[in-house]
Every structure is written in C-alpha cells, then in structure tokens.
Amino acid sequence: MQNLTRQREFTYGVMLEEIITQDENRKVSVNGLSLSPSGGMSVNGPPTTLSGTGIDRIASLQANITRDNTKLVNGAIVGERNVFQVDQGLGIGSNFPLFNRHQLTLTRFIQLKQVEEGSGNPQPPVLVLHGHYGGCIGDLPNYDAFSLGGPNSVRGYSMGELGAAKHILELGAEIRIPVKNTHVYAFAEHGNDLGSSKDVKGNPTAVYGKMGHGSSYGLGVKLGKVRAEYTVRHNRGTGALFLRFGERY
C-alpha cells in the first residue's frame, strides 16, 4: 500500500487462489442446478468454474486507487470519493485464466445548505449521487461475474437476485435531511447488466429467470450505526423493512 497524498491511496498485490465449488453434501459440483422441463431439479445448469472441473487455481494481480476528498461537517459526510479497481488475470492456473476485470465508482456528497460548524450545531442536508461501472475482458469465472442486486448494489433485492453479468452499470441518489442528532433519507437506485448477462458462461441470468436489471426506492432513518429502511422493489411493486449496518455510500 502507498499513500500518494493525504487524499490518494494506492494498493496492490498478487492473489493466488484455489476455488472449489461444492454442493450441499460437500461434493465437488461441476454445474449448478437448473429446473428440468418435468419440473424437477437437474445438475445441468451453468458451469461453476472456469476449468469445468469444479476446481480452479488462478493467479491475478490486483490494484486499487482511491481518491477521497470527503470530510465531516457536524457529523455529515460531504465532498467526493473516486475508486478505481482492476484485477488482471496472469494466465497462470486453470484453463489459462487471462482476463481483465475493472471497476470505477464515483460518489458525490453535495452539501445543500451552509451551516455553522462546531459541536452541537446541526448537520447540513446532503444530496448523494453515486455511479458504479464494472466491466470484464476475457474469460471470467462465473463466481467472479458482477452480481446485480443486494445491499451494496440495488437495495431491496437479495444478492444477485437481478442477475450476473460481465458489464454492469449502477446508479443511485439519496437525499439526507437532518433530524436532531441523526438524519432521515430518501433514495432511489437502478442496476443494469448492459445486455452482457448472455456473455457469462451458461447464461445463469436466463437459466434462473432473472431480469438483468431492476430499480428500487424507499425511505430510511439512521439510528446510530444502524440504518432502518423501507424499500420498494420496483420490479415487483412490493416493499419490505430492512435493517443495515454502516453506510451505503
């Protein structure tokens, strides 16, 4: 890890991995489950590994550059944060794993009102704008495909509920209004596979009947380190209450 400046950080390293995919009986699983025409379950689903054997060994180079110009104004985050991450397969391991997986995340915390800074003063209202792009060139193992849906993707959906893809775009907006020593907020998010789900081996998005895109919106309140959110899944028109820890952005 290197600190380029006070606001910039660069991390890098070599990753050596052995990935073994197993079923519920802890047996090596070469393919995922799929629904047969008769309504039963079949083991002829998408391949679980790049090698096709259920076991992968992969060497990759990973790097991350973060530019963080955020600060706290009476406890509210304001400023901007940019993160670029790249994983480069070195062609060493199972089935010559040569690929490039890259991600760019841009987040802006826009202070909507000037306030006097200092202990006991209220937080300012903040508008958060968030964008995340992920892409891959080359042979990407299915378990490293980008997952759409989940608390760190599109809120209100379970992890990967919207699909798995080689290219994704996620957009989000959140407005935070101070209330005493905390804030309430409203948000909207959207994720899209940019038509790349079919490029994942076996097309698990289509096999499991996922849409490849989805949106959500809702309201929440920050309670200490916990976020209580009521989220509506636009794809289904249903809502639910969720408790999350930490920050979304």
TrEMBL record:
An annotated GO cellular component: chloroplast outer membrane
Coiled coil (UniProt feature): none
Location(s), subcellular: Plastid, Chloroplast outer membrane
Protein name: Bacterial surface antigen (D15)
Pfam family, one: Omp85
GO biological process, one term: protein import into chloroplast stroma
Stretches assigned to the Bacterial surface antigen (D15) domain: 34-223
Organism per entry: Arabidopsis thaliana x Arabidopsis arenosa
InterPro entries in UniProt: Bac_surfAg_D15, D15-like
The entry's keywords: Membrane, Plastid, Plastid outer membrane
Predominant subcellular localization, coarse grouping: plastid
Domain of life: Eukaryota
